[in-house]
Amino acid sequence: MKKSLVRVVPLLFVICFALACKKNTSSSAITPSLSFTATSQTNGSTAIHFPNVVVAVQEVDTLHSTLISGQYADTSSATGSISIRVIGDTTGTYKANAVLVTYVDGQGNIYNSSGDSTDEVTITKFSKAAGGLVTGSFDLTVTGTPGSLVLAGSFTAGFLN
C-alpha cells in the first residue's frame, strides 16, 4: 500500500502542476475598452477612452436589444459615460432607428441620438458565453444643448451574462 501511495502522490502533483500551467497560459484575458473621437464643428476633435465597458443583452418589452455601456472607474475623478443600444442581439450592422445613444460628456452635458440615417454600429464578434469577447465599431451623430457631435470609435468587452 505504501509503495503505491509513494508512486501516486508524485504523479498527482505533476498532473495538478500541468493543469495549473495550462490554465494560466491558455486563458486570454479581455481588456475592456471603448475609445472614440468626439468631433464638433465649434470645438474640433477630442479623443475619449472609457476603461469600464459592459455588453449585455436585454429585453425591452418583447424586443431583444444589446447594450454597450462605457464609463470611467468609480475611483476616477473623470466624469462622463456612453450607452449605445442596438435593436438586435447578434453580429451585424445596425443603422438609423435601430440605434439609440446617450452620451454624457465631462461637463455633464447630455447628448442623444435622433435616429439619423448615418448612425451606424457594427458588431464584429459576439460571444454570448459569460465573459466572451464582443468587439465592434460605431459612427454616430448625437445632439445636446451645446450642439451636435459626431462620435466615431470602437469597443472591446466581455459579455455580461
Automatic annotation (TrEMBL):
This is Calx-beta domain-containing protein. Residues 1-20 form the signal peptide. PROSITE patterns: PROKAR_LIPOPROTEIN. Keywords: Signal.
